[in-house]
Amino acid sequence: MVNNTWSLMGHEFQTNWIENVHQASMSTVQSINIAESDPELIQLSKGELSKEMFPLDRMQTIIQKVGRELLPFGYEEPQGNFETQASYK
Length: 89
Known about the structure:
By secondary structure, this protein is an all-alpha fold. It has one domain. Helix content is 45%, strand content 0%.
């Protein structure tokens, strides 16, 4: 039998999900949706770089080089594609 902090706490504290769960307000959800479509904002939640920070020219060069030398896909090394890594250095 395995115990962890959460399983041990479950017996002491019972959450009343109906009363204690916070309901997001519609205005907050609408504000988030509007902000997500604003091209002037950097969307950190998506893990994307801003257009000014993304090295587009360099990435295009790398993808073209790797594309010319591309072999059929299969299982690669756990560390990733070494040719892609070498192209980026």
